[in-house]
TrEMBL record, chains A, B:
HTH lacI-type domain mapped to chain residues: 5-59
Cross-referenced CDD domains: HTH_LacI, PBP1_LacI_sugar_binding-like
Protein's name in the database: LacI family DNA-binding transcriptional regulator
GO MF annotation: an example: DNA binding
The HTH cro/C1-type domain, residue ranges: 2-53
Gene3D superfamilies, sorted: 3.40.50.2300, lambda repressor-like DNA-binding domains
Xref: PANTHER family: HTH-TYPE TRANSCRIPTIONAL REGULATOR GALS, LACI-RELATED TRANSCRIPTIONAL REPRESSOR
Amino acid sequence: MKQKVTLKQIAKELDVSISTVSKALKDSVEISLDTRQKVKAFAKLYNYKPNNIALSLKNRKTKTIGVIIPEIVHHFFTTVIGGVEKVANEKGYNVIICSSNNSFDKEVINLEMLASGSADGFILSVAKETQQKKDYHHIEETMSQGMPVVLFDRIIDELVCDKVIIDDGKGAQTATNHLLSLGCKKIAIITTVDYISVGKLRTNGYLRALRAYDITAREDYILKIEDIDNCESEISSFLKDKEVDAIFAVNELFAVTAARVLHEQGKKVPDDVSIVGFTDGILSKHFIPSLTTISQHGEEMGIRAAKLLIDKLEGEDDVPEEYKTVIIDTSLIQRQSTKK
Amino acid sequence: MKQKVTLKQIAKELDVSISTVSKALKDSVEISLDTRQKVKAFAKLYNYKPNNIALSLKNRKTKTIGVIIPEIVHHFFTTVIGGVEKVANEKGYNVIICSSNNSFDKEVINLEMLASGSADGFILSVAKETQQKKDYHHIEETMSQGMPVVLFDRIIDELVCDKVIIDDGKGAQTATNHLLSLGCKKIAIITTVDYISVGKLRTNGYLRALRAYDITAREDYILKIEDIDNCESEISSFLKDKEVDAIFAVNELFAVTAARVLHEQGKKVPDDVSIVGFTDGILSKHFIPSLTTISQHGEEMGIRAAKLLIDKLEGEDDVPEEYKTVIIDTSLIQRQSTKK
DNA sequence: TAACCTTACGAAAACGTTTGCGTGTGGATA
DNA sequence: TATCCACACGCAAACGTTTTCGTAAGGTTA
C-alpha cells in the first residue's frame, strides 16, 4: 500500500528543495529545463496529485459548492442538483450535497459544517421546519461571514440574497385557466398547509384564476393537507360525493393520489374529472392516464442557481452588493389527464 | 461583513498566545480557569468555529465519505444515499455526493478529485461505461493509496474490496416463481443488455426459475433493451401480437412502460397479463394498478455500505485486511399487477 | 581583477489547527 | 535566603501547498 506522495517526498528523493519541485511542476522558468523534466517524470511515475486540502487552506477557498435540500429522495430536487452539477463541473467546482430531511436542526448542522471550511458558497432550499419556525439566523450568519447563498424554490422573502424561483402563482393560474378553458366549472384544489410558501402561492394563483373567470371560490373545494404521507384518506373523504369536474393538485403525489381515489370511486379521468398536477416528474409522465402538469424546469433552476453563485464567488470583492431574483418560466405540459 | 474568526485573532484580541486559546477552548487544565472562561466567552461572542480544512490537514483525515453514483435523478440511488447519510450523520461523518452520469471519464475525475484530500473513503456504484470498458485502474489506485472503497449494487467482481449487493438472481427467481405459482405459463422478460451486470444476473434468475418449473425458455420471450430512453417502441413491437400471460421487467421503467403498452393494445393488467417489476420505487407504488415488485431495500444497502466503510476507516491499521460482501435480502411486494 | 549580471535554486512565511515541551513567575519549603 | 515545585502560559513543529525573496555559483564586462 503506497501512501499518497507529497512534494516533500519527491524533493527528498530527488535531493532538491520542496519549492523547486513545486515550481518545476508548474513549468516555472526559474527552474532549469533539466530539473523540470526530471521532476515531472518522477511525479508522473508516482502519480503525484496536489492535496486539495492543503490547497484549500492556502488559497482560502475550496472550489466546492454546498447544496442543501429538504429531501434527497425527491425527483424535483435531484433534477435541480443535476443542473447545479452541470455548470459546477464546467467551471471546475465540486458539489457537496446534504439533505436536511426537512429538519431545522439538521439544516443548521449541515450548514455550519459546510460553512466551516468545506464550501465556498451555498445553494439551498429551506426545510419545512425552518419555514415554520421562521428562524433564519444560520443562513444570515453564513452570509455575514462572506459566503454567498443562493436560495431556490422554497425561499425566504426576508432574506437578502440571490434567489431562483418559479412564479408559483402564475403557474397555478395557468393550470387553473387550462381547466377553465376546457369548460370545467367545479374545480377543486388539493394543496398544502399555508406555511409551505409554495403551497400558499399556488393556492393564491388558483383563486386568482377563478376570480378572473367570475367564479366564486368555494371553501369546500379547497383541501389543505398537513400530513403528506397519509394524504390518501384525506383526499378520499374530501372527494366523497363531491360533484367536481376538475382537480388542480399542487404536487405530483396529490395528483396521482386523487386519480387513484377517483378510480376507486368509479370515476374516469379525464372523462368525468380532469386533473392538472404540478411538477413534471416520473409519475406524471408514466401514469395512466399521463398527467397534464406544470413543469418547474428543475434542471434549469439548478443551472441558474449555480451560475448566480459562481458569479458571486468569482466576482470582484469591491463591487457593490447586488442581488438578483431569477424567475424561471413554468410551462403547461398537456397530456391525457385533461380532456381535449 | 465580519470574516470568520480564527484562533489567531482571538489570541491577539485577548493578548495571549494561539496555543493558550486552543487549549482553553478544549478546557485543558494547563490553562487557568480565569483565562479559560475569558477565552470561551470571547469565542462564543464571535461565534468561533474551528476551520475544518485546517483540521483535515492536520489530522490527515476529513471525516467525509465520498459517494459516487451513476445517476442522481434516480429513486433507488437516492434511497441508498438516504441510508448512507443516516449512519454517516450518526457517526459524525459528512457525505459528499457526486454523480458520474454513467460516464467513465466523469467517474475517474470525480474519484480523483475526492481522493486528493476531500474524502477518507468511498461508497460507489460504477458507471455503465465503466462496466463496459472494464477499466478499473482508478478504483484500484484509490484503494492502493489506502482509501477504503465499498462497492454497491453495480459492483465489479474482480475488485477485492467490501461490497453490498442484493442477490439479483434470487430476486428475479422469486419474481418469476411468483408468476409461475399464479399459473402463468408464458412469461416474458424485459431486461437490459448483458454488460449491465445486474441485468444479466436478473435474466439468469428468470431462466433458472423457468428451468425449475420445466418450462423451456423461449428466445422470443426475451427482450434486451439497449436504449432505455426509447424503450416504449421496442416494448411495443415486442409485445405486438404476442400471447404472453405475464411479464417480468427488470426495472420499474420497463414495468410501467409494458403496462402502458398493454393498455394501448387493449389488454388488461392483471386480468390478461400479470406484471412483476424490480425496485420498489415511486412508480410501482402509485401506478394504477400498483405494481407487484421486488424491493431492493435501497436504504438498507446504504446503511450497510456506510457501516462497512466506517468500520474500515476507524479500524486498527494493523489488522489483516479482510473484505466482506453483504447480501441484502430482497422481498416480493405483492400488489395489484399480479392476479391473486 | 573587480564589479556586475544571470541562472538556478533554497529558505521561509503563510493558510488554521493541535500538542509536546520548555520556561518564567510566584509561593512554599528547608 | 536559597531551593524547589506548581502553575500558567508560550514556542515551535507539523500537516502540504504556493510564492516571494534571498543568494551562491558562474560567467560577462570594463
